[in-house]
Specification:
Helix 2 runs parallel beside helix 5 and helix 6 packs antiparallel against helix 7. The chain has one domain. The chain has about 220 residues and is mainly alpha-helical. The C terminus is likely disordered. The protein is built from eight helices and no strands. The protein is globular and about 60 Å long. InterPro entries: UstE-like. It comes from Leptothoe kymatousa TAU-MAC 1615. Keywords: Membrane, Transmembrane, Transmembrane helix.
Length: about 220
Amino acid sequence: MKLKHAINLHKGLTAFVVLGMMAIYQNFQTGPWIYLALHGTYGFLWLLKDRIYPDKQWEEELPLPQGIVMFLVLGAYWVAPWLLISRGVEVPPALLALAVSCNLFGCMLHYTADAQKHFTLKYRRGLITEGFFARCRNTNYLGEILIYLGFAILPMHPVPFLILAGFVLGIFVPNMRKKDQSLSRYPEFADYQAQSGLVWPQLWAANKPSAVTEK
């Protein structure tokens, strides 16, 4: 199996898992419905993205037991809806609005940055220093963090934030560092690195990054 099979299975099941939790606990308040709309839609959009512009890093083949472990690890993201639904908490309107805003910003950054990366590299190899990557080298990861931050807000419990921090520090940041090491083979990378943030945009860089470098 491929790594993406475990990831896609988790994304595709999320809406059904959350809806099942709502049925089991008979909790159909506004908070759970908003969570279902946000996380469920995000999962379906992920599957759509995988069909239109898949990410090559998820094409890695791995043994079935390792894929099962990956699926179980990703299952930690279902702790947030479980805490929200099982505890029957009533989410204040302001927090609902904040969660939706984080999700909207996150989806825009995540999916559009991935699209720019995919189609740019499809036709022209090299550093991507324009558009969503002009001031941030990992805009797609920033978007994903915002998406899951929106999910973590709704249960009003610290555990989802700790889980998100674990994924960021244990998976996202190492992947970003690995990407930087790979891009360092380009002579222009040092200048680009100085004028862009690893995950947060460096908005006050002195000069505009250099143009895309063809391989």
